[in-house]
Design a protein that fits this description.
Layout: H1 2-11, E1 36-44, E2 47-57, E3 60-68, H2 70-74, H3 77-91, E4 96-98, H4 114-121, H5 139-156
Parallel strand pairs: 3-4
Antiparallel strand pairs: 1-2, 2-3
Length: about 160
């Protein structure tokens, strides 16, 4: 929730917040499956500081979503949490941890996601430029995008 609020202020964009539940496909602590998803957390006593939802499979792990409480943000808990997740994944034989992307424009210090870019690069991550895409399964939504694209082409002519 705190991460969603910060994002809303920074990007004037919101995303849904769902009540957290433990997602644990790992089963017994000594048996780590070849694929799954888990919510990793860092706490100070009973106080939650940061959480991250991570999925893994085929030797790769992917950060899906997460955030920090205000106190966790001030204590840089997310840095510690991701470092521990990477160490844990490495011990399980996972050789790749994807922190997700940021827009290329985030290289500019004035960009709203510049801090997120610095956070990710702070781990020594490799920057890999790539194109993104989104797919909507809603037929009406796809038709609307098609109509807008056609209108843009006509206006350019």
């Amino acid at each position: 929730g705190f991460a969603a609020e910060r994002r809303s202020r920074r990007l004037h964009d919101t995303f849904g917040v769902v009540e957290a539940t433990q997602i644990d496909s790992a089963g017994a602590a000594d048996a780590w499956p070849p694929w799954g998803a888990r919510v990793f957390t860092v706490r100070d006593g009973d106080e939650g500081l940061a959480a991250a939802l991570v999925g893994w499979g085929a030797g790769r792990a992917f950060y899906v979503s997460g955030g920090s409480t205000p106190d966790g943000y001030n204590k840089s808990a997310a840095f510690w949490l991701h470092w521990r997740i990477m160490a844990h994944m490495r011990a399980q034989g996972v050789g790749f941890y994807n922190l997700g992307g940021v827009p290329g424009a985030a290289a500019q210090p004035t960009h709203a996601q510049h801090g997120l870019r610095r956070f990710k690069l702070g781990f020594g991550a490799d920057e890999t430029p790539c194109r993104g895409t989104a797919l909507s399964l809603d037929r009406r939504h796809r038709r609307l995008h098609g109509a807008v694209s056609a209108a843009r082409r006509l206006l350019k002519q």
